[in-house]
Amino acid sequence: QLQLVESGGGLVQPGGSLRLSCGASGFSLDYYAIGWFRRAPGKERERVSCISTSGGSTNYAGSVKGRFTISRDTAKNTVYLQMNGLKPEDTAIYYCAADNSRLGDVCYDNWLEYAYWGQGTQVTVSS
């Protein structure tokens, strides 16, 4: 059974940093495009970033571009989301998602295209 587990969330002051991890049990993330999404209270799910199977293709939402970095560590079977310069508006539950239904070295912006999801990790940015 495919399981994704997020970790690394917490409370941080504005301007601070966190690194989120997305790990997997039962399968290798190497064969899956991975996306990070977030959901703030009272708001809809929002894409944050995604990375292709090779790591050669990445994409970021405009609101996080230049502050967040997505990456893979194949040896650890983990995908990271490094978040710098955090703002109060980044407060949300962050989810990672995986899918391998498309051919090619691509990743997907639409959350509907991801079949597997983690349980989420809370990120709170507040002074």
Architecture overview:
The chain has 127 residues and is mostly beta strands. The chain is 0% helix and 46% strand. The chain is built from no helices and 11 strands. Strand 4 (33-39) and strand 5 (46-51) form a beta hairpin. It is globular and about 40 Å long. The protein starts with a strand and ends with a strand.
Q: Top keywords for this entry?
A:
127 residues; mainly beta; globular
How many DSSP E strands?
Answer: 11
Indicate the low-confidence ranges by residue numbers. Answer: none
Class inferred from helices and paired strands: mainly beta
Provide the helix percentage. Answer: under 10%
Strand content range: over 45%
User: What is the CA-CA span between the terminal residues?
Assistant: 40 Å
Largest sheet: 7 strands, mixed
Average pLDDT taken over every residue? 95
- Identify the overall geometry: globular
